[in-house]
Structures
1.
Amino acid sequence: LIRTVKEIKDDTACKREIKMMLIVKPKMQQESETTKKLIKEKVDIKSMAMGITKLRKGSNETVIMGCDTGDEMKKLKETENYNMKEPPQSRSKIKIINIDMEEMNLDDNELVNIIKKQNKIDAVNMCIVKRIIKEKKNQSGRGEMEVGSVIIELDEKMHELMLKKAKLSIGCKKCPIFDHISVKRCFKCWGYYHIAKNCKRDETCHKCAGNHNSIDCTATKKKL
C-alpha cells in the first residue's frame, strides 16, 4: 500500500470534519425525520452565522449534525429542546508487520520504546492495542517461521508522520507500516457498519447468500 502525501492530508482533513459532529436527541419522544424537520424550522442557522456540513437521520430517534468549527458546535449545544452531544472519538491507528519474535517477546512498553529510539520518534501517547502472531515461510522456502504484527494507537499528528516513513526500523529489520482502519461487520447478515447484536435484517449464509444459518448450508462454493 503506497499513499501519497496528498492522500494522507486528505484523510486528515476528513477526520477533522468527522470530529465536528453532534448527535441530536429530542427531549420528547419522536421520530428522527420529525426531529430533522424541526431543527430546520427552529434552529436559525443563518442568524447564528454558521455553516452546517451534514444533517441526516441517525438511529434511535437521533439526528446527526456536522459543523465547520468547534465554536459552532458550542453554539448548537446551547440550543433548547434538544440534547446535543459529541460522538465518541477513536484515536488513529497504524499497523506494523513482519516484526521478529525477539522483539515481539518484549512487553508493550519495551517494544514501544525500541520503536521510538530506533526511529527517532518523539511521541508521548503511543500504545500497542493489539498483537498478531502468524507463521511465514523462510526466505529459503524451506520450513516456516513466526513473525509478528502490532497495531499501535497514536495521535493524528504522529499518525501522519509515521505513515510518511513507510517502514520502521525494529531490531535488525525494516518493518512495513500501514494505516489501520477498523470497520464493523455483522456476522448475521454480513453487512458492514453494525454488529449482529443490533442487526434487524434477515440472517444470511456467508457461503451461498441464502436466508439460513451457515452451519446448515450444503453449498460447496462460497458466493459472499
2.
Amino acid sequence: MRQKVVVIGAGYAGVSFLKSLDDECLRLADVTIINKNSYHYHSTMLHKVATAENSGQIMFDLREILHPEIKIVQQAVTDIDEKNRVVMTESGSFCYDYLVVAAGFEKESFNVKGIENSVFIGSYTQSSRIAEVIKLKFSQAMQNQTGLKIAVCGGGLTGIEFVASCANMLKRKCDFYKIPAEISSKFEVYLISSTPRLLTFFSDDLSKKTAKKLEDLGVKILHDTRISSLDKGVVNFANGSLSADLIVWTAGIKGASIVSDSDIENDRSRVKVDENLRAIGSVDRFYIGDVSAVSNGAGGYYPPTAQIACEQGVYLAMQFRDILKGTKFSKPFKFKSNGTICSIGHSYATAQVFGFEMAGFLPSLLKTIVEKKWNVKLLGLKGAFL
C-alpha cells in the first residue's frame, strides 16, 4: 500500500523538498502539498514587489514547477491532529503517514502595541498592496505638494533592502514627474533600527559601508532606537516620536501560527527538531524552514533563512528515499552557511561570503546568480532567463 506524505507550505523549504524527490519516491508514495495559494514566490525578493520594481519573474505556478504526480490542494490549514495523523483545512481533512511542515513565517510584533497601524512585507499579496498604497500616496502628495514620509521599522535585511528600493523608486518618480527640489526634498524614507549599527553579524567596517550607501540614497537612519508603540501615522519611541504617511514593519518574523496553535511544544512558532529534522520524540512529523529550530551546536539555533530552508528540503528528500524503501537513514543534517548578501539598490550590495567581506557590484551580481540558480531548480534551464 502506498504511503501518504502530506506537505504543508510552498515556500523555499517545502518546494525544495518536493523538487528533490526522485521518481522512485513518487512511485512509492502519494504526495500531497497543501498551500493557501496556487503559487510559490521568491520571499527574499518581496521588497521589490512592494516597490513595484521590475526584476524578472518572482511568482511561479505550482502546477508548472512540481511533478504531475504531486497532488496540489489550494486551501488554508486550520489544524494538525498529531494523534490521529490528520491535517484539517477549511473544507476537508487529509490523513498522512508522514507529515512535512514547511508553513513559512508571519509577523513578529514583540508585543509592540498598535502593530495593526503598520503594513508587513510578509507575502506576495501583502507586498503588492504596499506597492499600491505607495502609488496612491505618491499621487496624493504630488497633487497636494506635501511630500511623502515612509517609516520602516526594523534594520535587518528586509528593512534595509526595502528602504534602498523605496528610496530609488521615489527618486525615479520625482525625476520622471519633474517635481521641484523644494517638494521632492519632502519625500523621505526613514529606517528605524534598535541596534547601534546595522547588520551586527557583519564587521563594523562593512556595517558602516551599508549605512553610508543608504544615506547616499537619501535614507535617514535612526540607530539605537527602540519602538514603544505605533499609532495611526505615528511611530512612538521612549524619548519621542516620528510621524509618517506609511509605516512598514520589518522588525522580525516568527513561524506560522498553525504551529503555535497546535499542541506541539514550540518557541515563537518554531519547533525544536532532532538531527534528522523530526520533531523531538516523533517518527512521522518533520519541521523545516521557518517553523523549525535547528541546533547550531553552540547552545542556540540557526536563524531562519532561505539558505537553510533550501538545504533542509534537499536533505529531507534524501532521507525520504530511505524511509519509503524501509531502510535506515542515519546521516544527520548539518548546515554550513555560505554567507549573507544584502542588496542596497540595483547594482550594489554588501556581503560576507565564504569568509570574505565585500561591497559593491560583485556581491550584487552574486545575489542575482543565487536567485537565477533557484529559478533553474524550479523550471530547468529556461529559469535562468526569467
3.
Amino acid sequence: MHGTGVAKEFLIKKNDAALTEIIYNSRMERRRVAEAAKGVGRPKVGGPFELVDHKGEKFSSENMKGKYSLVYFGFTHCPDICPEELDKMAQMIDLINNSPTRTSSTPSLLPIFITCDPARDTPAVLATYLAEFHPSIIGLTGTWEQIKDICKKYRVYFSTPEGVQKGQDYLVDHSIYFYLMDPEGDFVEAIGRQHSPEQAARIIGEHIGDWKR
C-alpha cells in the first residue's frame, strides 16, 4: 500500500510538472509571436497619429499607452461586414472584462474604431453609430489625409470609388482585421474573421496575462 501511495504521488508530481511546462511553453510561444511581429525585416504596424474622437475631442496614439488596444478600421455606412465585426468586438470586450482571471493590475483593453470614410463619418455620426454596439468603443475620424496616413501606418488597405458626387451613396473597400496593440504601442497580433468572439477573447486575454511576466 505504501508503495502504491508513493507511486501515485510521483505520478501527480510528474503530471503537475508536465502541465507547468505546457503552460510555460504556450506563454513563450505567444511571446515569440508578439516579438516576431515587431522584428527586424518586418514592416512596422502602427505609429504616431492624432485624430478626433466621437466626442469631438483630440485623440492621439499617446492615449493608447499603458493599455492593450484593439483597433478596427471600417465605416458607418457599411451594410454587413462592419456591423458583424463590431458585434463580435462587443462580445470580445465583455468576455475579456468579465474574465475571472482579471485582477486590479491587469492592463485594460481599449477598443477603437477608426473610420475609412471621414467625408461622411463625423464625430456625431460615429457617436450615434457606435452606441448601438458597445459604450466603451471609441470612434476616431479626421481629415482624408490623416485617415490615409494612419491606414498606411497600420498597413490597412482602403479604397473609395472615384467621381463620387456629394450626397451620393457609395461603399468603401477595406481590410478586415482587428489589430491588437500592447501598452507600449507595439503591434502584437492581427485577429481575422475566422476567429469566433470566444477564440479572439482567449487570444487577447492570454497576451494581456503575459504582459511583463
